[in-house]
Structures
1.
Amino acid sequence: MTATATKTTESAKGPGDATPAPRPTSTIGTHAALTSEHGQTRIADTVVAKIAGMAAREIPGVYSMGRGFARRMGQLRSLVPGSSEVSLATQGVSVEVGEREAAIDLDVVTWYGQSIVEVSEAVRANVIQRVESMTGLTVVEVNINVDDIFVEGQDEEPKEPRVQ
Amino acid sequence: MADLSTDRVMLARAVAAAAGSTPGVARLVPGTGVPVVTHVPGGTVTGVGLGPAAVSVHVAVDRFPLEPVITGVVEAVSAVLAGAGDPRRVEVVVEDVDEAAVRRAARARDAD
């Protein structure tokens, strides 16, 4: 099994790479290998995106996700009856998934009055943990774009109509 | 080997527990200004900041003198960090003192 793993790594990286051993950082060994002698497991981008989206939202400092336009569209879409939750979970997430690694980009909106450094660290750590433990993929990077900051009281859509 | 997120969450909780149970510490507080909290999935750990070079603990104290209380917190938190193999410093910030403690201290001084 080790031999298989090494071979795959080498063929992926090319012969020029001087380090034949699999990445030492890894939790790889502790998770199920995605490529085995008996077959291959493929994980779709959507799966990783959904997990990452949910993981990011678990952090209380995240108010919302997505770029301005997508966020508004998401709000509209969520008003349409019968629209699925799928688009909402993956909103603001873009991923690249390889055979054994994944890279994740997130667009988040935080609350005013808290440390963005702290929030993004918490998001990054949680996303890596959730994705790695649920999929067995190694997360190589999580890039976080803080797109906007939500100020309480400055609600985007007034809850009550202005006229009765 | 525990991974990044679990480490973070566990460390913040362990530090909060150690500091919170130190004699003389009334509670952990977020402080004034940008709240000092550690975000964890589904909530926050109040009064614990995991900085790059130091772990800061913000407390409200319920007795005088402050010195032994602070020393106690530093020791308790250092023990947690050492146990986790974390090289960071400990930073204690006394954000508040309970009024009862201030009154007691004033009475004691008057009695002298």
2.
Amino acid sequence: METKTKTRWSEHNKEIADDHFFYLRSCIRQNFNPAAEKIFLSILQKNLGKDIYDDPRHTTCTGIGYHADIVPFETLQTVIARQFSLMAEKGYKNCAVSCITSFGCYNEVLATWKQFPDEMAKAGENLRKATGREFEMPENLSHSCDIIYKFRKEIARQARYRLVHRETGEPLKIVDHIGCHYAKIFPEKSVGGSEYSRVLTGMIEAWGGESVDYPERRHCCGFGFRHYLIKNNRSYSISNSRKKFVSMEPYRPDAILTNCPGCNMFMDRWQYTLAQIEGKTYGGGTNGIPVLSHEELAGLVLGYDPWKDLGLQMHQVDVEPLLQKIGIVYDPAQKFAGVNGKYINEPLFTGCFNPHN
Amino acid sequence: MHSKLNSLLKSDVRLEEGLTACMNCGICTAICPAAEYFEYDPRSIAVTVQSGNEEEIATLLESDTIWYCGQCMSCKTRCPRNNCPGLIISVLRKVSQETGAFVQSRMGRQQYLIVKNIGMNILNYGYCVHPTILMPENHPEQGPVWKWVYENMGEVYASVGANLNGDGPGAMRKISGADLGELHRIFKESGGLKFYETIEHFSKIKALELGFVNENGEADMEKYTQHLLQEI
């Protein structure tokens, strides 16, 4: 029995490179949570002593356009071949991917090239004709959450804070939401597969929190690509997120942890929108349930500043209740400060409801 | 057109990846978020494509049905035969656009809006999404914090260490002209530009058919766009 269990688990333990990464950024994360990418680089370089290269020449992978069906597969393959060409040119062999949509696209293209070598040859020819470039396949392709997961225990050793309620001493209850394209397309390319994903729960537990399962844990956030991109279709998107909030509500989570930039944004924004529609939240009083990505949570436990380092003021659901539960020392006056620490101005309100109404 | 549909579908390697042998069990429909939300059944789509029935495939290509999928790919995980109806949908959508069938359905017609938005972002900025085009009036769901970010964009992005529109590396850096040039040439060489043009071509024909004509007798795509934005 033990052997069978070990065998099954080994099928869902992917290989994650140890060092020397070529970073591939996310369109969505750069837009909505740009500091999350900055702190990922800082954690790897400063806390973990790793080498990771941030190449300004790489572009979007076009994944959102691909899944919204305006970018042909052949074009996606060629753009990805260019990213790999840039990587090889700089002497790197390991990709660290920020975006879950991109992660799915890279894996889809690599699997296609393995199964259909003619497709790879065609992408290579397109790339050569368009840019004069050649490309090499990466030796390892990991999502940034894989890398944080791999080093979660080292992060725990360096942590300034634990995911424990400062007053009660109880572990904070955290629900996770895994972006669909992390594990549903290629479960073997993830930590724990799609049914028993471990990549975020492993972090929560390593840093002192309690990972809380909930019935709709595996349900899509509802992005749906064309369904969110077209204003008339957005009810699909919010309805799917609502299903998740309804499912997690009875467990009264202290936070939601995500690995996907889009999911992170939707889980945050749709709480606000649902509150405006329905007049209620699904936890967290009038504020809602704070939503953090794996980079942001790692940065918090390591003691990085929530505003200038982590950019958590860019979330609609206020993270301050969570900071206070953990006992994080921070300066509330710096929340809406500009580059020189001078107050800019502030949003009409944070959280789900306008307290002045 | 009908005699070509099967060969068009089968010319895409993703059909081979996405459809090996469907046994009609319906687990894809059971797990599908779109099937829960719309009158949508990925099982029947897999069966139709597997049958090779040209008439039924032609009907599918002109219908709203193929546009309901949210591309979450939950179907891939659960299929006991390792099929992926989400991938079959990608192939159907491609053929629907290549043949012009997409303009026959309300949701298909929306592809024009996506080309003009995401498609142009990719070519103009090198990003699928760019903060300067995420206007709060078009995105009320983004809430007051995004409105604050948008109105104080330069200061907010700089304060969190981003490099908005700047040279060199960093979040939301400006993609250089040289790199955008390579991206453009890739789109040209690999059929991306032609695909955009095909979507625009059939959309213009549809605009004329619906009576959106400017003073020069050409398709008035601004009015067509407004029509699509209102069409429910």
